[in-house]
Design brief:
alpha+beta, Archaeosine Trna-guanine Transglycosylase, Chain: A, domain 4, 2 domains, six-stranded antiparallel sheet, 6 helices, Lon_prtase_N_sf, Lon N-terminal domain-containing protein, Lon_prtase_N, PUA-like_sf
């Protein structure tokens, strides 16, 4: 089933459940936000990638307008809902300043693999420890989903966009686990390199080899 959404393309990936704070300053998006606030409607953020509006994005709920500035600019709080696929894109929605488009909501299979999840948690904690990010490790909830950690994996926008398109939790878990298995050895080697650089030039108490 499809529906028409006001669209706010951005060069970011927004995941379902994610809280996103935005500063609104362009006239077209001021109009979009005010209409959503007045009508209690949602809008979409398709990812702007490779110099164009991507086919996938996230439906967004407007939680609140926290501040209206004297010049009409606004600070808003939003939350990601479900993922959509863009069927038709209008640079200007009918009679509006902002873009719009016909979208199809993407179904998500939420079934997860517990073993993979445990491996992800273990490697995430190892990664955060290696990077000195102990706060992230402590804040990781027991019932976390792939979307909860997607922005904390060191993925670039293209990789996050690819993750957004996957339609099952198990698929996303497999991609995340593979990424962690690849990146963790690199991070550890980088930390070792830092240690070697720090030691370079210091006086060393070395024991000569016995031969």
């Amino acid at each position: 089933m499809s529906k028409y959404l006001p669209l706010f393309p951005l060069s970011v990936v927004v995941f379902p459940g994610e809280k996103l704070n935005l500063h609104i300053f362009e006239p077209r998006y001021k109009q979009l936000v005010l209409e959503c606030a007045e009508n209690g409607t949602t809008f979409g953020i398709p990812t702007y990638i490779n110099n164009g509006v991507g086919l996938y994005g996230t439906e967004i709920a407007l939680l609140s307008i926290d501040k209206k500035h004297d010049n009409g600019e606004m600070d808003i709080r939003t939350k990601g809902l479900g993922i959509f696929k863009l069927l038709r894109f209008d640079r200007m929605a009918p009679g509006r300043l902002y873009a719009g488009g016909e979208v199809e909501l993407v179904e998500n299979n939420a079934e997860e693999d517990i073993i993979t999840k445990m491996k992800i948690k273990e490697l995430l904690q190892q990664l955060y420890t290696a990077l000195g990010l102990t706060k992230f490790s402590a804040d990781l909830p027991e019932d976390f989903k792939s979307y909860d950690v997607a922005h904390h994996l060191g993925l670039n926008v293209a990789q996050e966009y690819a993750l957004l398109q996957l339609r099952s939790e198990k698929e996303r878990q497999e991609v995340i686990l593979l990424h962690l298995q690849q990146v963790l050895p690199v991070v550890r080697e980088t930390e070792k390199l830092k240690d070697r650089v720090r030691l370079n030039g210091h006086f060393k108490n070395l024991t000569p080899p016995n031969f």
